[in-house]
Amino acid sequence: MPYRRPVGVSRIVTEQHMPADAFPGATRSTLHWAMMERRTEPTGLRVVRSDGAAGTARQPLVRRVVDALVGRRARLAGTVYLCVDLSASMADPGKMPELLRGSVRFFYEAWRRNYAVGAIGFGSAARVLTGATRNPYRFQKSITGLMPNGRTAMARALRLAAGRLRLRGGHRVILLITDGMPDSREATLDAAAAARALGIRVIAVGTGRADEAFLRALAPRPELARVVGANSFGDAVGGAAGELVP
Description:
Elements: H1 12-17, H2 28-34, E1 47-48, E2 54-55, E3 78-85, H3 95-112, E4 115-122, E5 126-133, H4 136-143, H5 154-165, E6 171-178, H6 185-197, E7 201-206, H7 212-218, E8 225-227, H8 233-239
Helix pairs in contact: 3-4, 3-8, 5-6
């Protein structure tokens, strides 16, 4: 029986951003159901999966392909947190779509390498958008529809990410994504140094008014930081996954 997409389930992740071979061994229809997390259909409505089995309302439709949030003891190659600049300058045309495209591409490449991925947004303050996850639906939902506003509390974001990574096993990485300079250069340099002292690797991708020399000072090696044009921003963010140690 052909796959029937449930009412209200978005095609965004699987068809616009997810490459066909992103999750080896999992069909697109399976991923559609997995990405629904714990969503259910309206009461009384019966649904049919691609394998022909029927489901009823208010019951999990299928076992999810990946865990929603990944515990500290999970056997992973590592964990990476994206620190995403949401300051007012990110409202410039084209920046947020490129950020979304690149971040989703980064997630799938990190997934292939057996990493969990979390995200932190920073404007005038820093906040966790999602904890470390291997769930593509949860990750994309956390970074979709964000509204740039305020200043650039980069140091707070780095400290928050380092705190989240401090007790996690495997490789630990922060990917800093920004289009400008922080509110405090000194505080940001100190936060990056503290993260590196914990064994956390810092990678930085910038665009716009970002200072490449400053971003290189945050990373353990200069080649882990780069500033690119607006048209290459998304590709640079997604390509940063190539720096993840398997």
